[in-house]
Structures are given as structure tokens and as C-alpha cells.
Design goal:
- The complex is a heterodimer.
- Chain A has 15 helices and no strands.
- Chain A is mainly α.
- Chain A has one domain: ABC transporter involved in vitamin B12 uptake, BtuC.
- In chain A, α3 runs antiparallel to α12, α3 crosses α14 and α4 packs antiparallel against α5.
- The radius of gyration of chain A is 21 Å and the shape is globular.
- By secondary structure, chain B is mainly alpha-helical.
- Chain B has one domain: ABC transporter involved in vitamin B12 uptake, BtuC.
- Chain B is 72% helix and 1% strand.
- In chain B, strands 1-2 form a two-stranded antiparallel sheet.
- In chain B, β1 and β2 form a beta hairpin.
- In chain B, α4 runs antiparallel to α10.
- The longest helix of chain B has 26 residues.
- Chain B starts with 8 loop residues before the first helix and ends in an 8-residue tail after the last helix.
- Classes of the chains: A mainly alpha, B mainly alpha.
- The interface between A and B is large, with 59 and 59 residues.
């Protein structure tokens, strides 16, 4: 009983995010006229890039810094990917590895400036973000690129389509309807995030986020953990870029889109229960945070126009409702203000 | 003595860099066109005319950064106030513009100071709501977006044939803020809260009211910039605030203000604004590719901060 209560209190943010996602998404499902696995595939297709960018934001936030370059880095990897992933077969695989490596390198560069340059992350990444957009513009002054259509199709649909496209198998049965994006995401969590979270480096990141001085005094290798956090963030941004390349089949150095992804990633991190001051949270909550953000906009598509709430289906009102829901979601954290006995405890 | 006349490192280096930018630009124009365009008073006044909008925005941004907060709602505060003002038109429109700034600032301030939602995320939400409101109001039909007389007077017109009124607005806003920062208790409280909010609270400062005041100042500055910018471009449009958010933060930080709050001088922000405006202008006159411009812009920020903005190593 005590352990359950402890688990609940330690993961309140994550559970709240899951709850919010469940309510919003179930509303969407119940209103959708033709709900099925193809709708799920379509939904996750629209969400995965945001999920990866938000994961990229989470890791630097855990060590107590904000990364304004996640969107631009995603854009850079997208443009780079549209160049190196353009072949067929093995060269695509090499291209993906190169693109992911570029993402990690971008994150490592951010980390070096933050750790060795001792510049505040938010302002260091504002500057590197401009650099990444600049480099992306060199690669793709105009949108373009030609990624293999079969490959694009196979990796942005369900498992059956993957088998059909390459002639590997016809029907994978019940597993065949699972969207491939879901497998990709699961793989990255299991292979990358969970080992990192359990490693000394990962625990060091949480320690630094809670109290950097105390972490240093306890022998945490602060610099190494911070570098690892930013590099991992860059890797996740690289995943977003690679996925965007697969989805679009081309590269586009779109600065406004990059900025929008960055801002949304901050919102997703906060809704996912990670503290902007660092030290608590994780990418699992963030995934749900990103899905909450996207599901909100899904709902507006399926509200029947002749119902009592038909007026919210107007596309003109969508940004307003999205904003209000975002504001309400982040204001939920204000509840603690009304519980504290001593206002002094608010300042720490 | 933080308020003395001693010139500090960021301001000195920023000014030196401005000279370097102008020297490089002049060398370029001398070799290609044989004229020193960048040193002509007409060109410099033109840059100040346009830079004043960033100057006013950055001045407001500095007020919240001094507290260790940030205001991401600036782009749509600027756009919404200008758009509503032009839609109503006339003197009432101008009053509305300032009113919108006041209201957004109060709302931000209450959310950050009383609900204690992190400013980064609360103002981000407010930005989205303002965007939504403007899309709702202007999406279906096209309301009037022509600038009012006051906007044209402030943003476009010049006196005596050379003095742009936008520069006068910038100077007036600056004078008020400098007086407030250095000569009033409010200014002292802002530095105190930026350094350690708990200590300021225990010293009897009504910290919540100070935070609200700072956010109101920031949004008011954004609204004033919107008023003048709408005059400059003769109309209000949706994306008018977008290119002011990150440059205004960069200008404040380049001017030596600590992004975590508590330290920074107003003159530094002015130097930061002039630096950014001149850098962008010189790069575009040199017909640099957009990619290079972004890379150089980012590199300049990093290099300048490496020279003077390095924080303390955390060791205890």
C-alpha cells in the first residue's frame, strides 16, 4: 500500500498526462464515424515527429536547461536526410545512420557550448538553432529531394504494408495491422531511453536537474552527464528529422515550422509531467503530452457540424480552443499554490 | 556600484563589435560600389528608424528577463494589439492598442505571479490564445487593417526632415524605464527578485505585485511597438510580431543581462539591439545568402557570449 502510494505520488505528472490523453482520445474515438486501425495509423503519422521532438526537448529539460534548437535541428536532419536517404536498399540504411549521427552531433555541439562555454542552455541553443536553420538552407534553399516512394510508404504504414511493398510476406495476421511507427517508437524507448535512464549517466542527469551543486559534491560526473543529455536530445531530434524525411519524401528548410515544433515541444514536455526546473519526469510522460496536444486538434475534425457543439468545428475557432486547452492544462499545476501553508516554500 | 557610470564589458565589447560590423560593411561597399553607404547619416537613421521597433520590444523583454522570467507572448501581443487597433480605427483604436497590451500583461502577470505557472509555458499558452482570438476575429472576413493617423505619425513620419518619430518613441520608452530601474524602489525590487525571490519576499517586498508590474511593462512595450510598426508598414497583419521574439531575447542577453535574472544594465540592451539590427542589415546589403546570414547571426551570439557571458562553474 505504501509503495503504491509512493509510486502514485512520484508519477503524478505522468499519470495525469495519461489520464488527459485517455479522456481526449476516447472522446475523439467515440465521435469518429469510421474509427479503425487505418485511423490510428493516420493519427500516429501526424504525431510521431512531434513526439520525437518533444522527447528531444525532455532530456535537456531534465538537467535543468531548455533547448530552443530542437526544431531547427530536426529541420536540418530532415534536409540532410533528403539528400543522403535518396538511394535504394542499403544506401538508405546508411543514409538513415548518417542522418541520426548528424542529429546526435548537433546535440553534442549544443552540449559542448553549454558545458565548456558555460553559456545558459536557452540562449546557447537559440544561437545554435539559427546556425542549424542556416545549414539547412544551404542543403535545401528550396524544398526538394526525392526519397524512394516505396520506402516512404512502407515505413509510414502498418506492418502488412511493409511486407507487401517489399514482397517479404503477404499477411502478418493480427500483428499485421500494428502501425510501423509504433514499433519504431517502442524500439527507441527500449533500446535507447530505458538503458540511458538506468545508466550512471542517466541517473546523473536527474541528480543534476534536482541540485547541481549537490550532484557535483556527491561525485556525479556533471559535465559528462550534461553532454550525454544534450547528445541524446540531439539524437531524438535526429529521429524526428529522419521520420519527417520518410513521411514527406523530401526536405524543407522551413524556419516557421521549426519554431512551431520547438514551442510545441515545450508544451508537450510540461503537459507530460516533466518539471521545467529539471530533475523530475521523463520521456514516457512527454510522449503522452505530445499525443494530448495532437488529439486536441483531432477532435475538432470529427465534431458533427449540426450538433449542439457544432460551432467548435469551425476551423476559425480551432487555434483559440487549442490555446485555451493548453493554458488550462498547464494551469493545473497551480493547484499547489492553494495548498501551501507557507508562501516561502513557493520560491524554491 | 551597479548603477554607476562605469562602462562594463558587454557594453564595451558590443560597441566594439558594432564598429567592426560597420568597418567590414564599409570595406565591402568601398570595394564594390566605391561608396561608404554604411557611414552615411541617411543609412544610419534609416536603421535606427527600423531598429526602434526591436528596441521597444527588447526594452519590455528586458523587464521580465531581469526577474528571471521570459515572455513568449510578445509576437501575438504585438500583432493582436495592432490588428484590433486598426480594425476599430481612429483614436479609439489607438486606445484599444494600449488597452490590449495592458490586459495581456495583467493576465500574464497574474498567471506567473499568483498561479506560479512557469512563465515560459504560461506566456506560450497566452500567445496561442491570442493567435486563436485573432484568427477567429479576422479569419472569416477582412476587417480594416489600414494604419490609424497616430500609427503613421509614430511609425512612419519624421520631423525636420530627418528625425524618425519611432526613434523618439524608443528614446521616451527608454527614458521612462531607465528612470524606473535606477531611481525608483520598483527598479531595486526587480533586481532583488531576479537575484533571490525568497530573500526579496522575506525583506517585505510585495514580490507578486512587482512581477505583475514587469509583465505589464513588457506587454505595454510590445503594444507600443505594434502601434508604431503598423504605422511603418501602413497596415497591421498577422505575422507582424513573429520576427521580434528571438531577436529581442538575443538583444537583451547580448547586452549583458543575465538570462536567469538579477543582473543587467539598460544601456546594454540598447547596444544589443543596434548590434543585431546592423548585423542583419549589413549582411543583407552584402547580398549574403540566407543560410550564411543565419549561421553568422548564431555564431556572433555564441562568440560574444563566450567572451563575456560565461557563467560560474557550479561546485558546491
Amino acid at each position: 500500500m505504501k509503495t503504491i502510494r509512493l509510486y502514485l505520488s512520484q508519477n503524478a505528472g505522468l499519470l495525469l498526462a495519461i489520464g488527459m490523453f485517455a479522456v481526449i482520445y476516447l472522446t475523439y474515438v467515440s465521435m469518429h464515424p469510421h474509427y479503425g486501425m487505418n485511423v490510428v495509423t493516420q493519427n500516429i503519422n501526424e504525431t510521431l515527429a512531434l513526439i520525437f521532438v518533444s522527447m528531444a526537448q525532455t532530456v535537456p529539460v531534465l538537467v535543468g536547461g531548455l533547448d530552443l534548437s530542437v526544431g531547427p535541428l530536426m529541420t536540418l536532419v530532415n534536409c540532410f536526410g533528403s539528400v543522403v536517404m535518396a538511394g535504394t536498399g542499403g544506401s538508405i540504411a546508411l543514409g538513415i545512420i548518417a542522418a541520426l549521427a548528424l542529429g546526435a552531433a548537433g546535440g553534442f555541439f549544443n552540449g559542448c557550448i553549454v558545458v565548456y562555454g558555460r553559456i545558459q542552455p536557452i540562449i546557447a541553443t537559440l544561437a545554435t538553432g539559427a546556425i542549424y536553420i542556416g545549414l539547412a538552407l544551404f542543403l535545401r534553399p528550396t524544398p526538394g529531394g526525392n526519397v524512394n516512394g516505396d520506402f516512404s510508404w512502407a515505413f509510414t504504414n502498418d506492418i502488412n504494408e511493409l511486407g507487401l511493398t517489399y514482397g517479404w510476406f503477404d499477411d502478418a495476421g493480427i500483428f499485421g495491422v500494428i502501425p510501423i511507427q509504433f514499433i519504431i517508437l517502442l524500439l527507441i524507448i527500449v533500446v535507447v531511453w530505458i538503458p540511458f535512464r538506468r545508466s550512471t549517466l542517466g541517473r546523473g542527469c536527474y541528480a543534476i536537474g534536482s541540485a547541481e551543486g549537490a550532484a557535483y559534491m556527491s561525485g556525479v560526473r556533471v559535465n559528462r552527464s550534461k553532454l550525454a543529455a544534450f547528445t541524446l536530445g540531439g539524437f531524438f531530434a535526429g529521429c524526428a528529422g529522419v521520420y519527417l524525411t520518410m513521411q514527406m519524401g523530401s526536405g524543407n528548410a522551413d524556419a516557421p515550422q521549426a519554431a512551431e515544433y520547438t514551442l510545441r515541444s515545450i508544451a508537450a514536455v510540461v503537459i507530460g509531467g516533466t518539471s521545467l526546473f529539471g530533475g523530475t519526469g521523463g520521456v514516457i510522460g512527454t510522449i503522452f503530452g505530445a499525443m494530448v496536444l495532437r488529439s486536441i486538434s483531432f477532435i475538432f475534425r470529427v465534431v458533427p457540424e449540426d450538433s449542439a457543439f457544432g460551432f467548435v468545428a469551425s476551423p476559425l475557432l480551432q487555434p483559440l480552443f487549442e490555446g485555451i486547452i493548453l493554458l488550462l492544462a498547464v494551469s493545473l499545476g497551480a493547484a499547489r499554490v492553494f495548498r501551501v501553508r507557507n508562501r516561502l516554500s513557493l520560491f524554491t | 556600484m551597479p548603477f554607476g557610470l562605469k562602462v562594463d564589458k558587454p557594453i564595451l565589447l558590443g560597441s566594439a563589435f558594432i564598429v567592426i560590423i560597420l568597418a567590414v560593411g564599409t570595406a565591402y561597399t568601398l570595394t564594390t560600389q566605391g561608396t561608404a553607404t554604411f557611414l552615411s547619416p541617411t543609412y544610419l537613421l534609416q536603421q535606427l528608424h527600423f531598429g526602434a521597433f526591436l528596441g521597444v520590444t527588447a526594452a519590455g523583454m528586458m523587464m521580465v528577463i531581469l526577474l528571471g522570467h521570459i515572455d513568449l507572448s510578445v509576437p501575438w501581443t504585438l500583432a493582436a494589439s495592432a490588428m484590433l487597433a486598426t480594425a476599430i480605427g481612429g483614436l479609439l483604436g489607438d486606445v484599444t492598442c494600449i488597452g490590449v497590451g495592458l490586459a495581456v500583461g495583467l493576465f500574464n502577470g497574474i498567471g506567473v505571479a499568483f498561479l506560479r505557472v512557469p512563465s515560459m509555458i504560461f506566456t506560450l499558452g497566452v500567445n496561442t490564445v491570442l493567435l486563436g482570438l485573432m484568427v477567429m476575429l479576422t479569419g472569416g472576413h477582412a476587417p480594416q487593417s489600414a494604419a490609424t493617423d497616430l500609427m503613421l505619425f509614430l511609425g512612419r513620419d519624421r520631423s525636420f526632415g530627418f528625425l524618425p518619430h519611432s526613434v523618439v518613441v524608443w528614446a521616451a520608452v527608454s527614458a521612462v524605464l531607465v528612470f524606473m530601474l535606477t531611481r525608483t524602489p520598483l527598479g531595486r525590487y526587480m533586481y532583488a527578485i531576479g537575484n533571490k525571490e525568497a530573500a526579496a519576499y522575506l525583506s517585505g517586498v510585495r514580490t507578486r505585485m512587482v512581477i505583475v508590474a514587469a509583465f505589464v511593462m513588457c506587454s505595454l512595450c510590445a503594444a507600443i511597438a505594434g502601434l508604431a510598426l503598423a504605422g511603418y508598414s501602413a497596415r497591421a497583419y498577422q505575422a507582424m510580431g513573429d520576427q521580434y521574439l528571438l531577436p529581442s531575447i538575443a538583444a537583451v542577453v547580448l547586452g549583458g543581462t543575465n538570462i536567469l535574472g538579477g543582473r543587467g544594465r539598460y544601456s546594454g540592451t540598447v547596444v544589443g539591439v543596434i548590434l543585431i539590427v546592423l548585423l542583419q542589415s549589413v549582411l543583407s546589403v552584402m547580398q549574403m545568402e540566407e543560410g550564411w546570414r543565419q549561421v553568422i547571426y548564431g555564431a556572433v551570439i555564441i562568440v560574444m557570449l563566450l567572451v563575456y557571458g560565461r557563467g560560474q562553474r557550479v561546485e558546491s
